[in-house]
Specification:
Radius of gyration: 24 Å
Number of domains: 2
Number of strands: 19
Oligomer: single chain
Number of helices: 13
Largest sheet: 8 strands, mixed
CATH superfamily of the largest domain: Zn peptidases
Strand order of the largest sheet: 7-8-10-9-13-17-14-15
CATH class of the largest domain: Alpha Beta
Length: 484
């Protein structure tokens, strides 16, 4: 059941809420004080924060309401938009602990309406739990009122709508990644793509079975040979009412479970490889949001979906296949399979005549060792596109760090048996993976590659996310499309 969130311009005395939440910042006025008991308590809290700067939060209880005020001065790592999401997620936990079912967030200050979107995102993402398979499910439900100034009502309602759409699609991606590997196969992603296409009036093409080989999508065929479940190439097309100059392709790695194939992974942590389709999930969810928000640029979503399993027909180390662009690839390690299926997805982006291509993949452990679990790696052939992606992510709390495509490292991908080896050795693994993909970018296309192997799934709570999938990349993609 979706959380009920609405914008109200009623005074706080008239809003029905048993928990009232406010965020105090020394430079930004998010709420108003007043002569009512809550108004006086807010003024007192603000004065205390300014004077002592030691309190992270102040709680006051009234006859029928509780007030909690958070101080932004103790969240120095993030900007106020990101901090506000953290605070409202904390408020949800507070409400659950004390049985509050109606929450009001005060955004009636001079700058309050600027934070309606962030607050909405914090509530929707912070309320998410994947308890589908738990016998004891979370029973506590909360409704939220965002208290704004009357003059800001339309602006606030637009922000609520936009951020709710995107946040719910982020949660859709989280659901996909959190599902067990025996529930999500390539055909599952294809079926969901068709559903999204019908709901959003998108064009859709699914290439699978014998058609993959017939059309030359040899990367998907090679990777999927060991599985009982056939690979497929999924294409979703959004076209704006007015023809756009640019055409953005969002390309996602959709390995629904990655055992490593014949080059099998260690058992420890392999369960997280149910999320090796997190890039594909991000593209599907972003396309669903784009269909609703209708940006002015043409967008095509492409997901290369396969399951990487050992089996009697699985590709072997040393096998060679000819990619769609004619280059031969020796498969030195079958666990470097994501880049193989992406050769097909990148080729399809060229066939769709995309001018800008952004691929997203849980591609390398090397990027996690370099950047940790909070930041994704990015590299590409166009500085402006790379910067646009970084900026789009920064506006929504998704951080990227640019890695260089060092030309001399291309030597590490050489093979005496084929045009390319699919791995480049033990050093600079994230960069050599990017260099490999660059070999398959269609001529003339501007391209960026996102390696989200770090932040795609969490083993402990982070910001407003509980353990599990984050849906990383969805917010970036929607913002990027809108920025065109």
């Amino acid at each position: 059941m979706k959380m009920k969130i609405l914008v109200t311009t009623q005074s706080i005395e008239k809003v029905k809420a048993d928990l009232v939440v406010a965020i105090d910042d020394p430079k930004v006025e998010l709420f108003e004080t007043g002569s009512s008991p809550i108004g006086k308590a807010l003024a007192e809290a603000r004065k205390t924060f300014r004077k002592k700067n030691v309190h992270r939060e102040i709680v006051r209880t009234f006859e029928s309401q509780t007030l909690v005020v958070y101080s932004s001065t103790h969240e120095k790592v993030y900007d106020l938009h990101e901090s506000s999401k953290i605070f409202v997620a904390r408020a949800l936990a507070f409400a659950a602990d004390y049985g509050h079912s109606k929450v009001a967030l005060l955004l009636d200050g001079a700058n309050g309406s600027d934070y309606v979107g962030s607050a909405t995102e914090g509530f929707v993402l912070g309320d998410y739990r994947f308890d589908k398979y738990r016998k004891e499910k979370r029973a506590h439900k909360v409704s939220v009122s965002l208290v704004c100034r009357p003059a800001e009502l339309q602006k606030a309602e637009r922000a609520l709508l936009r951020y709710r759409v995107v946040s719910e699609e982020v949660n859709r991606a989280r659901d996909l990644v959190n599902e067990p590997g025996d529930r999500v196969y390539p055909k599952t992603l294809a079926a969901l793509a068709r559903k999204i296409a019908r709901a959003g009036k998108l064009g859709a093409t699914i290439v699978s079975g014998a058609q993959l080989e017939k059309q030359g999508y040899t990367g998907l065929v090679a990777v999927g040979k060991g599985s009982l479940y056939a690979p497929c190439l999924i294409v979703l097309r959004y076209r704006p009412a007015k023809k756009s100059k640019h055409h953005l392709a969002l390309v996602g790695k959709g390995i629904t479970f990655d055992t490593g194939g014949i080059s099998i992974k260690p058992a420890e942590g392999m369960w997280t490889m149910k999320g090796d389709m997190a890039g594909g999930a991000a593209v599907l969810a972003a396309m669903a949001a784009i269909a609703k928000l209708k940006p002015k640029v043409a967008v095509t979503g492409i997901i290369a979906a396969a399951e990487n399993f050992p089996g009697p027909k699985a590709q072997r180390p040393g096998d060679i296949f000819i990619a769609k662009n004619g280059k031969s690839v020796m498969v030195d390690n079958t666990d470097a399979e994501g880049r193989l299926v992406l050769t097909d997805a990148l080729a399809r982006a060229g066939e769709e005549k995309a001018t800008h291509i952004v691929d997203v993949a849980t591609l390398t452990g090397a990027v996690v060792r370099a950047l940790g679990t909070s930041v994704a790696g990015i590299m590409g052939n166009d500085p402006d596109l790379v910067r646009a992606v970084i900026d789009a992510g920064a506006r929504h709390g998704e951080a990227y760090w640019e890695l260089p495509l060092i030309a001399e490292y291309r030597e590490l991908l050489k093979s005496p048996y084929a045009d390319l080896n699919n791995i480049g050795g033990k050093f600079a693994g994230a960069i050599t993976a990017g260099l490999f993909l660059q070999e398959f970018v269609p001529d003339g296309a501007l391209w960026a590659h996102l390696d989200i192997a770090g932040p795609f799934i969490l083993e402990k709570k982070w910001k407003y996310y509980p353990e599990g999938a984050t849906g990383f990349g969805v917010k970036t993609f929607v913002e990027l499309a809108e920025s065109f």
